[in-house]
Amino acid sequence: MSKKKILIIDDEVDFCLLLTSFYSRKGYEVSFSHTLNEGLHSINKFVPDIIFLDNNLPDGLGWDAAAKIQHDFPKTELNLISAYKSDLPHLANLATVRILEKPLNLETLDLFY
Predict the structure, then answer these.
(1) Would the CA dihedral through 66, 70, 76, 77 be positive or negative?
(2) Which is more confidently placed, 51 or 92?
(3) Could you read off the pLDDT of 68-79 as tens digits, one per residue?
């Protein structure tokens, strides 16, 4: 059985390294990207089971790509993360979408994956 894959799209290097370390120890294959364009390319190449997508990225708003990601990869679990409280009613009701507010607590993430 192959490892589940996690892709982190976030411009905060320390955050990416923290999540990479956390989920690698749990047996996931983890990759990360620091820009939206790089992340979208990585989705197609890496084909993750789980995505952590930040909203405010250097080259655009990550959440603007959320609907297309869900359309193109409907089985991928999408975790929308931001330091700012947000509401996306058109995505929040999908079973594969979770909205998380930074700072994230690793104990909370441990409950999900």
Answers:
(1) positive
(2) 51
(3) 999 999 999 999
Domain boundaries, the chain: 5-112
Exposed, middle or buried: residue 4 (CB in 10 Å: 0-12, 13-18, 19+)? middle
What is 23-60 written as a DSSP string? HHHTT-EEEEESSHHHHHHHHHHH--SEEEEESEETTE
Classify the phi-psi angles of 47: left when phi > 0, otherwise alpha if psi is within -120 to 50, otherwise beta.
Answer: left
CATH homologous superfamily of 5-112 equals Response regulator (3.40.50.2300)
Query: pTM, whole model, 2 decimals?
Result: 0.88
Per cent of the chain over pLDDT 90 is 63
